Amino acid sequence: MKKRIAMALAGLLVVGTALAGCGNGSGSSDSGDTGESGKSDIKFYGKVIEYTSGPLMCDALEEQLGGKYNFEMLQVDWGNLDKVIRTGIASNEPCDVYNVISTSLSNFKDQVVDLTPYLDENNGEWRKCFEPAALEMCTVDGKVLAIPWEVNFQTILGNKEAFDKAGVEIPESWNYETFMEACKKLKDAGYYPFATPMDLAQGAWLFGNGMLSAAVNAGTYEQYITGELPFTGQETTDTLTAIKALYDSDYVYPGEGAVIAKKDEIQAAFSQGKVAMIANVAAGAKEVQSSTSFETVSVPWPSVGDQPAYEGVSNAFLIPKNAKNIDGAIEAIKAFTSADIQGIHAEAGYLPVNTEVEITDPFVQGLVEQSKATYGFSFPQTAEYRDYIVNNLMPDLILNGGVEVVQENLETFRQDYLASKE
């Protein structure tokens, strides 16, 4: 049954610091121990204060299971997330539940509980609550090692007034050819069609989504994510050519300097009605929409090919094998991903993973539909490769040599990666 949730929840939680709570067991009892209250303890490293829904979801979890467990709610330290998990596990006094970014799961694959049996028990009752794409992001070597509680990806926000003025209808998905046609109409109507940030590690968005969609459409996705697909091939050529055409046609704000555009700059231009579309993360899309004076709509990212495919990532919960209260951790994660608590996330404008949550906001509905085309894996990202696609690929493509130069550089990184695996 689909459920809609009211936002009113009583009570505030007292939280400790992340490293003190999870990496050092001194002065505290084992999480599985029961005290005088008869309740066992759960260290829950999953309070996300950056989301308006985060504290409310933790409040709801404690309200729902507080009669059975003593929760120690710990704030997520995003800048040191992997370190916090490693330190906690190595101390042999880990948290029972850790928030983890799905792309980091392979780093912990031998240290965490395989959650596949829990998803599949009772005829897969728990598994059926999730979109398959969300669970796939948390799967390593055929095992689900974490349970997603939200999916995030790159999306586009559009000025509905600009689209109406230009006579452009927003489709459920589109390829670069159709996207370019829309950009021309928007430019003719007096708008810069598109803007995307190049700071804050977001410079790789165009290439990442383009290359992924090209591989998916060509049937070479598995080769791409294992490093077996040459960057000298047609998939890369098509991706880079499509992106370069967008810039060469002067469709990207602010024109000259677009390859160094900052997030604050393009958001200001969008708010002022100068730009028709801006790239943004789905998790922050509702906040931007609520701040504009015009109607803002969700727009799909263009794909290289007709099948949409977007790079995605999950925030998820893992359980260390040496956790003191594995059974309690399972129960807590089930509650956190239930329709009741996920509904709080949806009410705040974020993307729930539970398919039983009723979403009434058309804007969020559009984002949820887009999330069904997300993929959690891409080319293996070494530090050198990541630095290149974030900071240098776009300048090389648009200003310093073009498609062939970028392909040669990417292929060098691929060969280096393959050599490191020998």
From TrEMBL:
Signal peptide: 1-20
Residue intervals passing through the bilayer: none
Key words of the record: Signal
PROSITE patterns: PROKAR_LIPOPROTEIN
One Pfam family per UniProt: SBP_bac_1
Database matches in InterPro entries: Bact_solute-bd_prot1, SBP
Official protein name in the record: Extracellular solute-binding protein
Organism lineage string: Bacteria, Bacillati, Bacillota, Clostridia, Lachnospirales
